Amino acid sequence: MPKKQTASLTAVRVRFAPSPTGFLHIGGLRTALYNYLFAKKEGGTFILRIDDTDQARSVEGALEHILKTLQWVGLEWDEGPQLEGVKDKLIEKGKSGPYIQSQRLDLYRTHALQLVEQGSAYYCFCTSKRLEGIRAEQTAQKGLLMYDGFCKNLTPDERKEKLHSGAHFVIRLNVPSEGKTSFNDIIRNHVDFENALIDDQVLLKSDGFPTYHLAHVVDDHLMRISHVIRGEEWLPSTPKHILLYRAFGWTPPIFAHLPLLLNPNRSKLSKRQGDVAVEDYRKKGYLPEALVNFVALLGWNPSADQEIYTLEHMAKVFRLEAVNASPSVVNFEKLDWLNGRYLREKNSSELFEICLPFLASAGLIAKREHTYTIAATGERVTPSWISKVITLEKERMKHADEIASLTEFFFVDTPQYDSMILCWKKMTSEEAARALMYVATLLEQQPDASWNALLIEETLKRAIDENGMKTGEILWPLRVALSGREASPSPFDIAAILGKEKTLKRIRYAVSKIQSQ
Predict the structure, then answer these.
(1) Which of 2, 21, 121, 297 gives the lowest tally of CB atoms within 10 Å of its CB?
(2) Is the entire prediction scored with pTM above 0.85?
(3) 450 phi and psi, to 5 degrees?
(4) pLDDT of residue 155
(5) What Cα–Cα distance (Å) separates residue 202 from each residue in 137, 165, 198, 245, 423?
């Protein structure tokens, strides 16, 4: 097997070049991240460039979303022009924006005409109707869908006449019909393409906008890009780019094509199979550091014994040669596990800031300036109390938007539930009611000064032991009475947060539910 090409070079300059056609997806984030990590590891430059040459597919607001997402996960680009027209003040004062390809059209046109003059490209005047006919015929014959080269064979006079008449045209690459186009890939080693199988790709469209092929080659050369790190889907386009570099007399960059991302069923990762946009995960309360950690390990892992990495640590140990060429299965259960780990490492103040918006959007908490109230009851509560509620459930949280469903029972007057679940195992309703009344009697006597989880637990467990009771007969009905759920945090912790008055109210409500059935 040929030896992998090394990634080292004296002046590393890489770019991430997304199209503003929607939200940034997981695959795009991985591409941006690997470019960023490689640049930082090699002391190089990370450039952001927006490929908006396909105006029909550009989505309003997509550029802003891309910038927000990259900044949210901490991927700051190193250079660019002063950007005009970006909304929401996304670019800090004095900081450069990304390069925008639609603002560089004259540059691409000049280079396209240069290729025509030297015979490396040609004008194509074929109508959409003719091209559709060619495709239909090739499809019927089960052949390759390629341009048939008709306009390549026009005489100089025929071309001149069509141009003089104002006929619409595109400019196509003049691909040699014989031989091979080869290159070395850091991840995939030596790659060959038969020239006979390479289409005469459009370089400049009839609207004057370049295609991806021309614009990216011109920009990569002029921006002195040393390494092109992009997704595997661009691998078939690389020979076209190599041919363009040769036509211009330029040295190509080093290529590295990242493996595909797959769903657990090994189908290609796509929105039809579930959420793939970074924004989807942000809205669910995934942390940026967890998402970056997760995405980084989709095809690369410097150590079999380590799963948790900071962005700074990854930048120190990243090796492009170590990226696996095989497709990577996206295991979202692992993302949940990672995010849960990062959430549990947050202190109470950080968790409060992370989770409060989800409690508010769920209609559990209302906020006016610095005042917080329980929306269902109007009761005023302190940030400290809300923080205790959140911290109680952080061990079970996988992503922050779960906090509302996990803690909802704290934000109601009395939880609603079927009284039958108050009964532990084979207990009767009457036995459950007696157990709850006994607990109420004990807790009524608990001094306010000792109303905390530890002392409440000591009081109840001492009574259980002294009276020869079964723990479940007391604590199960109490847990359900306080939370309305069969699965919840310990009843001691819930009671401590609810306070004595609310705890006793919920216990008596549970007894009344049993007695009224």
Answers:
(1) 2
(2) yes
(3) -110, 25
(4) 95
(5) 20, 21, 12, 16, 73
